Automatic annotation (TrEMBL):
It comes from Streptomyces apricus. Pfam families: SBP_bac_1 (PF01547). This is Extracellular solute-binding protein. PANTHER family: ARABINOSE-BINDING PROTEIN-RELATED, BLR3389 PROTEIN. Residues 8-26 have a biased composition (Gly residues). Residues 1-26 are annotated as: Disordered.
Amino acid sequence: MESINGRSSGGRPSGAGAAAGAGAGPGGRTFSRRWILGAGATTLLTTGLTACGSDSDSGGGGGTLTAFVYGDDAVKVQQAAVDRFNKSTAARTAKGKVKLERIPGAEYPAKLRTAMGSPSAPDIFFNWGGGSIKDYQEAKQVVDLTDTIENDPALKSGFLPAVLAAGGLGGRHYGIPMRGMQPVILFYNKALFAEHKLQPPTTWDQLQDINAKLKKAKITPFALGGADTWTELMWLEYLVDRIGGPEVFARIQEGDASGWGDPAVLKAAETVKELIDDGAFGSKFSSVAYTNGGAPAVFAKGKAAMHLMGSWEYSTQLGKFPSFAKNNLGWCAFPSVEGGKGDIRNVVGNPTNYWSVNTRAGNKDAAIAFLKDCASETYAKALVANGDIPTTANAAKLLDASPNPEFAKFQYEMVEKAPAFTLSWDQAVGSQTATPMLTEINKLFVGKSSPSEFVSALKELK
């Protein structure tokens, strides 16, 4: 998949410092797991809504609906869905069809932003949920799908609840899941663990014991591509969850900046500093990138024993170091923290990508009918064939057809059983918060601010 800044089917641009880049996966695929609107970008939104790109803007007429989609190699799944819908009884009943407009990955967020403030706005559009649609939601440019989902069994029971909820805002649903899940996972080198008689950690104390044994053996405990700030963000996301529970960041995501002052944020920052000072990431992590293959290589070559990374790490390793991926790549949940409020089953990362509907869509009935296809088994099978893990409730039975059924089932069960799935922070908040937040995270990791200074700076973000 094309990448703008790191990971996922869909992108994420540079944030603070060296937060940019692209991670290549197998077959030329790259993984760009998030998108935040660029710092200082003018959001071309209007509260006086303009007409959409459909042939009709009456809200219930016929015509062809335009759907903007991120134009990577996974788009073939969405194109097949469009072709299938346009020939379906549902399309005839709703008197509408869909035309897919593929936007090159590097251009997608900017083109969507511009189009949404113009007469050529799409009726349906691909997005990352959360903060990526906040500006559109505030400008009343995105349809609230909550009641539609509640009143439609196919949609209400068709997706994993944690994923459906993670793409919303303020407890309301504005998107339908349409691509694979992307949780952050603790990967480990099975050969190194076996050699040193180690077991995957389930508690923080166990992790610290593992770190001590690895350092004694002259092995860096964790690979970290600190030249890309989003890799550092993952550590804080999980630590805040495990220490304070998902409610801590939920407050922040809803706009309560005082949430940064929660004791769990300070404790997470202090824990990060302890890891850095203890050499858990080695001494040169800030000059190593994920996006150029540096951190994956450190991990695969046995120079580091573990790697906290999104689920796309498997595909990255399969493309770059296939023998390691097939024989020695292990995975487990991020450990619990003693005395912490967060459940070890909680997940952070990118739940998936979403389809949303423009409030000025010419034929909302046809738009909703098209979105319902994402809950179908046919659509889920197409995702599995593409190497993705569907977020549909019935996907478990389909995963034997995955390129790696064991890893696919681990991911699916991880998300299925998660009491909470916290959206990546830089994707969950608006652009005005995300960029300076990444700056402060980078400063913490490179030693330019203390944990208390880190917290103080974040509390000033609005």
